[in-house]
Amino acid sequence: MAEPLLRVEKLVRRFGGIIATDNVSLDVAAGELHAIIGPNGAGKTTLISQLTGHLAPHSGSVSLAGRDITYLPAYRRCALGLARSFQITSLLLDFTAADNVALAAQAHAGTSFRFFANARKERPLRDAAHAALDRVGLAHRADVLVSKLSHGERRQIELAVALASKPKLLLLDEPMAGLGVTESQGMVKLLQELRKEVSIVLVEHDMPAVFALADRISVLVYGRVIASGDPAAIRANEDVKRAYLGDQHVVTHHG
Amino acid sequence: MKNLTVSKAVTALMLAGLVLLPLYSQASGNVFILTLFTRIIILALAAASLNLIMGFGGMMSFGHAAYLGIGGYAVGMLAQEGVGSGFIQFPVALAASAIYALVIGALSLRTRGVYFIMITLAFAQMAYYVASGLARYGGDDGLTVYKRSDFSGLINLSNRTQFYYLCLACLLGVIFLIWRIVNSRFGLVVQGLRSNEQRMQAIGFPAKRYQLVCFVISGTMCGLAGALLANNTDFVSPAVMYWTRSGDLMVMVILGGMGTLFGPIMGAVVYLLLEEFLSQITEYWALIMGPLLLLIVLFGRGGIMGMLGRVGRG
């Protein structure tokens, strides 16, 4: 089998006596949408933070397209084609939507130690920003300050920013968080489109969305992967049902 | 659009006033006003440089007066050692400021928030005490610059009007550079870091590198102000580096409007004119100045530029 795009091996991260990531191994093939689910406190965000480089693991390794990135800082991983969205929207609020996205494009288009020419007049950057905004359906809001946009729109901008860096792998940390029903449906539709172009790791609470989108699902409980497989296998898995006792009906309900 | 025209109109008026001031001074025979405004322009230049890191970069440096001293001492010490040429003095002043900024910035930028403020303050105070210890160059008493920088006939700094225009040209040149910088790729990155550092790291920008370069540019610009200031007063002393002077510069920036192009000039003009005016009325001028600044900062969000914007809208 070909080298997976992302390979996580025996990752361990402790916080004091608590093992937040307990020997996690998983891989994501090119073109795959791999979802990570788990109850609150399962260590999803801790895991994601180690993938993005915001948190260092105590042992184990992370590699992207065959290259060990376990201890690379976040900005270097980004240059290698790893983009992320934040669970809690994290944008430049006093910048326009277009500026937010154009900066992401700029990060991947040569040096930014240019001091004189007006960056807002660089056609390629503006075009890339416009294309990414168009992709998420927000081209008409390009010149609005992000602080003036709705929560749902900001979630979409998060995605546009991640896309603008033309990543190989997209790490989406709860893209549906705080979205209404219609907005969620829109987001699922959008992700369905995007997954054709880019590999995605999706951390999400919204079970119907996960089961509709994922090629494979890994279930994280108390920092450990208790099951990994395609949606049908996960739905049938007894351990998963037990772990999700409270949410069980959600898992089984979705046909 | 109307709010733009009000602040733009006031800015244009102010700039026109600054350009025409020597004519008024000559016509009225009021030499004092020219001297006063030369000082205002030099400190406006220092405030503008501080605004680059504080207003646009979000780096609250509380030690910016150190560069005034470093630029000033470069001129004073070279003059004392018999190097009178401005073509040597000014580049040395700028280079010394840049190197100081590089070292201080590399150390300070490991910290954030209050710690950054305190560490920049601490370094500036260290520079102050170092200067106080320079026995050969006057120590505590300071150093008299007997001869102004010599630009071999190109421009005569001892001529008040010529010197005034040199300072004004430097100020406008620096404002022009800052304008280009803040709209450049580099400037957008620095402003992005002010807004949300985590996000900028996540899209692939190493924060510290950009902030450090910005810190050095700002320090170098302020070193220029220091070199001009030493020529203006024919004197340089550790007092120009004292922390209260760094505070004055911060007040000018905040008063005028952080992160605006012309705010620092506005702030310097208003602050120094108020100081001049109030100190003529009473020796307790600080008692009036303090509350006045407090009111402006409390109720005039965005400083003078911000208020002008709101006047236009209202």
TrEMBL record, chain A:
GO terms for molecular function: ATP binding; ATP hydrolysis activity. It comes from the Bacteria. One of its GO terms (cellular component) is plasma membrane. The keyword Aminoacyl-tRNA synthetase does not apply. It holds the Pfam family BCA_ABC_TP_C. Keywords: ATP-binding, Nucleotide-binding, Transport. The keyword Transport applies. Residues 6-247 form the ABC transporter domain. Involved in beta-(1-->2)glucan export. Transmembrane domains (TMD) form a pore in the inner membrane and the ATP-binding domain (NBD) is responsible for energy generation. This is Branched-chain amino acid ABC transporter substrate-binding protein. It comes from Bradyrhizobium nanningense.
From TrEMBL, chain B:
Keywords: Cell membrane, Membrane, Transmembrane, Transmembrane helix. InterPro entries: ABC_transp_permease, LivM-like. The keyword Transport does not apply. It is a multi-pass membrane protein. The chain crosses the membrane at residues 37-54, 61-80, 86-107, 114-131, 163-182, 210-229, 249-274, 286-308. Coiled coil: none annotated. The keyword Cell membrane applies. GO terms for molecular function: branched-chain amino acid transmembrane transporter activity. It comes from the Bacteria. Its main location: membrane. One of its GO terms (cellular component) is plasma membrane. This is ABC transporter permease.
